[in-house]
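Holo prediction. Input below; ligand is zinc ion.
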Amino acid sequence: MEKDILILAIESSCDETAAAVVRNGREVLSNVISSQIALHTLYGGVVPEIASRKHIEKINQVIEEALAEAGVTLKDIDAIAVTYGPGLVGALLVGVSAAKAISFATGIPLIGVHHIEGHISANFIENKELEPPFVCLVASGGHSHLVVVKDYGEYEIVGRTRDDAAGEAFDKVARAIGLGYPGGPKIDKLSKEGNPEAIHFPRAKVVENEYDFSFSGLKSAVLNYLNGCQMKGETVNTADVAASFQKAVIDVLVEHSVHAVRQFGFDKFAIAGGVASNSSLRAAFEKECAEKGIRFYHPSPVYCTDNAAMIGVAGYYEYIKGVRDGYDLNAVPNLKLGER
Ligand code: KG4
Ligand code: ZN
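Structure of the complex:
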């Protein structure tokens, strides 16, 4: 029997300090996440300086917990995978520095991982049979990408947002209707009490590329609707606004994704990123994919939002390809997918 490969993974690109141990790329032995959400909620969004400081306070503890929970020590670890971009530079630097320090002290190889590659790879954890090629929609707070996953670590972005990311739109609309940060889960919950057909918000098409997204017009339409109600002295049914907004986002994501899967001739489709944990979005994809004969994959909610297990999975596939980074590995806040 071949020797197991254990990856210690570290993620600190935004507001979660996370570490995990992953065996052979598909089995999560531990997945420790220290969330800063409660702290940033006070300010209505992520404050980069506070995020960096909190990562520094938490990182060593989170790594130690991940090793202890997995029942291993650094002696058992084959490589350290760390998110080095994209993200907040100060936040990324904490994870990258910790990973480099451990690697330098122990000689364990170091591998820098792209955050979006991590999100996509989250699908491999619970869907053991899933192998590339497939199409993946990555919808998070910072990204809305339609990606053709050609092979492990090989990607082609076929669609992207022209302005706001889907999660960003959720966060902005949530703030406008008084729900606070982070908006996605709150809109998801409130929508269940509202009528998604109550208000017709626009579904934007981008003429130059049929797979691209645009959410800023939708956000403005919601703000205009709220202003209009206020001027007319009408009370706003926030549940209806939430449900109608959410339906507009989901309609566009589903339509573009399914179109891409068929046009590019694939029969497998996956979702990833924080927005992928949205319950109505999952139900809509479930239905649409079943009708069109497309196999639909999604990670559990805990692997949709930021975590280190997904970085460990992506790191494993880089490791077996022979990718190694030196101690000059740096945080790259605007790192492009597929670039090293
Ligand atoms: O992937 P993620 O944790 O971090 C980034 O890489 O950006 O995504 C966070 C985003 C936030 O905008 C949050 O509002 C959104 O994902 N989100 C959701 C849900 N849970 C998180 N959006 C819609 N419905 C949800 N249930
Ligand atoms: Zn993320």
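The first strand starts at residue 6 and ends at 11. That is the main takeaway for now.
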